[in-house]
Give the backbone structure.
Amino acid sequence: MAIAVDEYSRILIQGITGATGRTFAQRMLRHGTPLVAGVTPGKGGQQVEGIPVFDFVADAIEATDADTALISVPPLAVHDAVIEAIDGGIRTIVIYSEGVPVHEAIRVVAYAQAHGVKLFGPNSAGVITPGKANLSDLNDVNVPMGRVGVVSKSGTLSYEVLGGLKEQGMGASTVCCLGGDPVTGIRFVDVLPLFEADPDTDAVVLVGEIGGQAEVAAARVIRNMRTPVVAFIAGRHAPAGKRMGHAGALISGSLDGADAKLEALAESGAHVITRITDVGHAVAQLIRTSGRAG
Amino acid sequence: MPDLLEYEAKELFRRAGIATPRGGLWPDAAEKLTGPAVIKVQVPEGGRGKRGGIRPVPNPATAQVYVERMLSEWPGAPVEAVYVEEQVQVERELYLAVSLDRDQRCPVLIAGAEGGIDVEESRPVTIPIHPLGGWPPYAERRLQTALRLGPEIGAQVSELARRLLAAFQAHEAELMEINPLGLTADGQLIALDGKVIIDPSARRSLPFAVAPRQHADPFLERCKELFVNGALCDGEIAMIVSGAGLLMATVDLITDLGGSPGVLIDLGAALFKDPFYVTETVKMVNGYKPKVILINYNLQLALCDRIAAAIAEAFRAIPREDWPAVVVRQKGNAADEGAEILLPFHFTSTTDLDEACRLAVELARGGKA
């Protein structure tokens, strides 16, 4: 049982006719992700790799029963795309686009919450359940199937985690990238209970970073989890006061720093590592001692 | 958009119906003011008062010598302009701001009874303004109690806060701060200072043109031009990395090994644009004369060989004697092809991140790879 997306998802790409959307479509079809439609206003009636394109999400849903959307449109078109998707009946959304105005991110996150829609991002590298559905920019060939759940703010660090797992002969059940913007939809506290309830996930890797309190909130959830968690926080040595690419990775208070988060996570029972390159070994060890399969 | 200077913030406040002292930029505004005034350096940082950046002048018309002295003694960031405004006598100084709370995922109103220089000493209250709730009905009561105001002034502060919130949302701000918000003897509220930060991804531009900064950070400006994100540290090991998270983790690894981070670059959007931007980024980084450049990219959507070719282009343009030690770690799509392309350059190459960092630190110490 995957979390968020699986082989029964019926996926549409908003922005399918753009360069990135097209690349995602090609990959999905090559590796068996259930892509059923695309939406680009004004390009209805066209096809991308044999997939029908529609002007409106509602039309796409009527024709294909799509229930999941990957949004790869220009940042100023995201707000519109999300509202349209939710109004049409989409239940799970990944916003791949970055540069979304924060006030619009606030509105779409609230809209999704009010409708009970799972919204990842904005600026999310995506979600992938290997072997079943890939709504991420990770290359399917680099995501081995396995029993480790991965949840990360950073897409690029999720790549490193998967490399580390692969070296230990392990793989991922589902990988969730939350995005690095200050305001995002799905958070650690939303994903962790899903992994805890997933019989196909034996351990979780949590990758956080400086800025905000999301990892401290995650620690409170981890305290009550039976599934073991390995946690890493990027930015322990980040220069103070400088934005290092993730708009959200800016320390504004003493509680937003890496040390406070690591402390909270360690106290909650998570196994914290300070080097991203240690993740493979840490998970392997945890799984051995917890007696689960991996 | 740069962080707004005080005079620009006050212009937004005025347009929102929030009173400010009469004032304008030196020297033009001085002609229109009489009586005791204040001259203030316009710089993108706080704590001006404590460092002599805010000075009273008896008469704006004859303030030239005061302005010159203030500028010559000012120890902080380069001054963009000087602002002169009438001096206003207030009975109380309050604190009022609208900010974004990333964990509550909405704007928040922050209000304190003791504004001014040491506002951190007092304990402000926070009122979330949720998109679904709008202005909360209890806000006025909360403000009145927290700021220790009577009902009449309490209502006025509440109204001013609503206007500040409206401006905050209209202009897509991340922060709009009035510190101090002065309360005069006859019950007028007046914004004595202003700080505004606008979302870099904002859809709309401001209703007036923000003057280009004379003292903009050249490094940050160049990063913007090249579609990369950067931070300038003064160590010996420059790092050019794909992705903000991986950059931070690489800095952590290098620092833990005893290395000192120098120029830090997250290639970001440049990975998907014309390779020219990656080439120019490498040249720019080299311009800071690092001892070592650590290039680290793990590409799942972009292509390693494209990036490697761009890097090769940069080093072909840089004279051999100006090359620092270079460590390259590439992984992901077309990594083998990328390695092929960089082979002739004899950089220290590995696919292992631990090894790449260890080698970079060793090379910085003067060791051989």
